[in-house]
Backbone:
């Protein structure tokens, strides 16, 4: 009986010792599932060391642990609460890039050991990226007269101090905004862009400039160029294109066909065709001497019409409309 009581006493003392150990020597951080051990201590003294328009550099005091560590940087854009990112750093410094200019951000760092145990968060560091105040580089513009009613403008491509932040374009003619009859064209070199200004008065001298803007609202204006178009006595427009029809399409990308127009002065291979989508001229290049061309439509109902234009800028009446419903764009 004495040995039985002694065995029970020993077992009871062992259970008591185990309970005390768990109470006073348990995990101090966030351990990974499956009992992989204690979490490492949290990184500390997180500070911002540099700020630009699109980047913030960080440094912090590393977590002390016998295991190898990596760090996670939580980046939150306070101007857009849905814009939160998580990055991995192997050192105790990190530069967050591709941020939005003039926006408020918060940064937090935590450590993860080789077993997946995660520390608590560091202190929060807050900062605001710098506003973008620098315009794109200034374009250099030149003009080429193509005929009595057309001038081609070609300019050097601009670069911007903020990546993926450029460019939009606007044009002036004789100092006033030019908004109509502007069609993109193939430039003479890879480092240049080009448009053709159409429906210019034959026998006139006009000045042109191009403005290049970034998405932050900063604008650079090119030099001004002058161009004089030759005169023309042709005032009779071509006939209207006939039988406008759909050739093929994928989504909202279409090929529209028609029967070519005729003109009393210009041959058919010099007659250009303008495609209008819901009453607005397509900005895509305009082709001459063709009976089919590419155009973009929009989701929903679309009305396509085509006009023929001779070299003197005389426009035919619009063709009969082609009505299409596009259900996937």
Residues:
């Amino acid at each position: 009986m004495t040995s039985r009581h002694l065995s029970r006493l020993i077992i009871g003392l062992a259970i008591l010792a185990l309970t005390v150990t768990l109470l006073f020597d348990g995990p101090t951080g966030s351990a990974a599932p499956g009992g992989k051990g204690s979490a490492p201590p949290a990184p500390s003294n997180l500070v911002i060391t540099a700020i630009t328009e699109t980047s913030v550099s960080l440094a912090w005091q590393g977590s002390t642990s016998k295991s190898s560590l990596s760090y996670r940087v939580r980046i939150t854009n306070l101007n857009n609460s849905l814009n939160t990112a998580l990055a991995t750093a192997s050192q105790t410094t990190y530069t967050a890039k591709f941020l939005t200019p003039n926006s408020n951000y918060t940064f937090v760092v935590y450590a993860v050991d080789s077993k997946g145990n995660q520390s608590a968060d560091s202190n929060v560091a807050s900062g605001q990226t710098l506003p973008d105040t620098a315009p794109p580089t200034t374009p250099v513009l030149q003009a080429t007269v193509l005929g009595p009613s057309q001038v081609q403008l070609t300019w050097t491509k601009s670069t911007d101090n903020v990546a993926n932040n450029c460019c939009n374009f606007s044009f002036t003619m004789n100092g006033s905004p030019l908004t109509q009859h502007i069609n993109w064209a193939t430039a003479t070199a890879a480092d240049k862009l080009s448009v053709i200004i159409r429906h210019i008065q034959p026998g006139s001298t006009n000045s042109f400039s191009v403005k290049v803007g970034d998405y932050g609202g900063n604008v650079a204006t090119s030099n001004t160029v002058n161009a004089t178009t030759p005169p023309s006595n042709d005032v009779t427009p071509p006939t209207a294109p006939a039988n406008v029809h759909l050739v093929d399409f994928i989504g909202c990308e279409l090929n529209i066909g028609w029967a070519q127009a005729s003109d009393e002065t210009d041959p058919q291979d010099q007659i250009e065709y303008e495609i209008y989508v819901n009453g607005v001229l397509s900005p895509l290049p305009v082709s001459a001497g063709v009976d089919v061309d590419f155009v973009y439509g929009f989701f929903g109902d679309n009305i396509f019409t085509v006009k023929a234009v001779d070299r003197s800028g005389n426009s035919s009446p619009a063709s009969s409309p082609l009505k299409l419903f596009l259900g996937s764009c």
Notes: The chain is about 5% helix and 45% strand.
